[in-house]
Amino acid sequence: MVSGKPALNQSGSPEFVFRVFTTVPEFQVLLFLLFLLLYLMILSGNTAIIWVVCTHSSLRTPMYFFLCNLSFMEICYTTDVVPLMLSNIFGAQNPIPLAGCGTQMFFFVTLGSTDCFLLAIMAYDRYVAICHPLHYSLIMTQKLCVQMVLGSVSWALFLSVQLTALIFTLPFCGHHREINHFLCDVPPVLRLACADIHVHQAVLYVVGILVLTVPFLLICISYVFIASTILHIRSAEGRQRAFSTCSSHLTVVLLQYGCCSLVYLRPRSSTSEDEDRQIALVYTFVTPLLNPLIYTLRNNDVKGALKNAMFHKAAPDTT
User: Fold this and answer.
1) Greatest CA span in the chain, whole angstroms?
2) pLDDT in tens, 17-40
3) Could you give the CA distance from residue 59 to residue 66 in angstroms, rounded to a whole number?
4) Residue 119 near residue 253 (C-beta atoms within 8 A)
5) Where are the beta strands (DSSP E) in the chain?
6) Which residues neighbour 108 within 8 Å (Cβ) at sequence distance 6 or greater?
7) Does the domain at residues 17-310 carry the CATH identifier 3.40.50.720?
8) Is the pTM of this model over 0.90?
9) 3-state SS of 12-47?
10) Contact (CB, 8 A) for 62 and 310
């Protein structure tokens, strides 16, 4: 039982404010411009990937279909967080009502979970492409690809609804509570409840295992088979090409799963609110920004399509 907290304010629905990064005006301006620039880069980079995949028939393959969906999720994911974050960066601490906080948490958990599931699906796609190339088109049909994406979104929605509803049945002490974060994330909101949260923390761990641990294990299993197949490729050029198609995905996987695991799967006794907020900056800004950079700089097909588009040399789409 959490003790030492004031009694619940029954005069109205609780409101939350976010703790500011700094009270120094010069630093506030710099942070605002930095985060705004990163946000615009995320929007433009991921939009470019969606556009180039949708307008070039040569990229209409399962791998790029999943990449296109991942980019769309990254845009929605950051848009759920960054505009509100920017509006509070100058220290005004505009309150967010309970319903608004719950809405942001719901979309944040849904989109973040879908990201993790999509990364696991992309690993399976690479497994089929490298380990079963002759059966690739028979296995990775358009119908299966759509079903896997819809399944990821549906499963993420189900988990998010359950977790968000469970958290916001808790009583929150006082009318104005400060969240030591820049968004309504699960751990910092849980810390503000004036009730026993052991069950809620246990549910959070279960959701974390389903969203992070299980997909990551499936990714690892896929890459064990992929590595075994690559090592048996006789051509050095073939090994290099196979490795190149996987290295971009692995980079994003390690960054996304590593940072999220530090926030959601560490024991509460070993976590720091300030550390969680710093780590959250990585998967809020760095991962969505690296996604288009990694997949374009290390992918000759996407680079070629972008160059053709920039110089208006793209072949007319006949499909």
Assistant:
1) 73
2) 888 887 788 888 999 999 999 999
3) 11
4) yes
5) 15-18, 96-97, 176-179
6) 77, 80, 81, 183, 184, 185
7) no
8) no
9) CCCEEEECCCCCCHHHHHHHHHHHHHHHHHHHHHHH
10) no
